[in-house]
Amino acid sequence: MQLTLISGLSGSGKSIALNVLEDAGYYCVDNLPATLLPQLVSYLSSTGYERVGVAIDVRSGASIAAVPQLVDLLRNMVADVRFLFLDSRDDTLIARFSETRRRHPLAGEGITIGEAIAHERELLGDIGELGHRIDTSNILPNTLRAWIKDMIKADPNKGLTLLFQSFGFKHGIPVDADMVFDVRCLPNPYYTLALRPLTGCDQPVIDFLENVPEVHKMAQDIERFVGEWLPSFVRDGRSYFTVAIGCTGGQHRSVYLAERLAKAFAPHVPVLVRHRSRKTE
């Protein structure tokens, strides 16, 4: 059985993630009390279900605190257990609740949305590090759907999946990054008018950057650093490791370097590439 557990902050996109799993043929359960997970998995496994998705969050009440121990138990019961935690910045979550006019599950009389979110973060503090974390602050629903599809396609038997993610510092540092590299010191194609509307995936921008010696030095230094420390994270039992490359707007330099680094590591480990701020996303 392949078991995918989904958790995260209210308003971060858990419903979207669970819908992707359902569309992919998973048997899905939403808002299951955490303590019922072993019984559910045991029953579904005995009745022949091969792919199961379960969403668990603060609506489970006090049982949410037992999730770390339950995940360890489930990994002894099921060969393939994946844990996805969706997160987002507070300002983004507040804006989403304001737009949808939905009530936060922890909100109540005298409790603001901001206070409810802070309380939820505290309750989920021990859960966010259990698996793959995705910051949904600045991504569109269709982009999140594509990222979830990539995640469920990854083969855990091939070990850790290395994820290179470009972003723009003006939009904030992704909260799901394990390593962050700042490449704003490199020459910016944005200031060449013909290149401004393009991205780091377009050949004219690639040609511009590959003619800059500092770009090659930066790429080589990042590749060497990640390559040196990656085995330590593999030994730590990680399923995913996110390397974030940031420039000012997330359009040119970071996109180019994320793509270049992904190609360099692809022959050695499973690799995914994400562009958080690229306009074509």
Automatic annotation (TrEMBL):
Give the top-rank taxon of the lineage listed in the UniProt record for this protein: Bacteria
All copies of the RapZ-like N-terminal domain together span 1-154
Specify the species.
Answer: Viridibacterium curvum
One Pfam family, short name: RapZ-like_N
Question: What PANTHER family does UniProt report for this protein, alphabetically?
Answer: RNASE ADAPTER PROTEIN RAPZ
**Transmembrane intervals:** none
Q: Does the keyword Nucleotide-binding apply?
A: yes
Q: Does the keyword Transferase apply?
A: no
Q: Which gene encodes it?
A: rapZ
In this protein, which residues make up the domain named RapZ C-terminal?
161-277
Protein's UniProt name: RNase adapter RapZ
Q: Which InterPro entries match?
A: P-loop_NTPase (IPR027417), RapZ-like (IPR005337), RapZ-like_N (IPR053930), RapZ_C (IPR053931)
Positions annotated to bind GTP: 57-60
Q: What are the binding positions for ATP in this chain?
A: 8-15
**What keywords are assigned to this protein?**
ATP-binding, GTP-binding, Nucleotide-binding
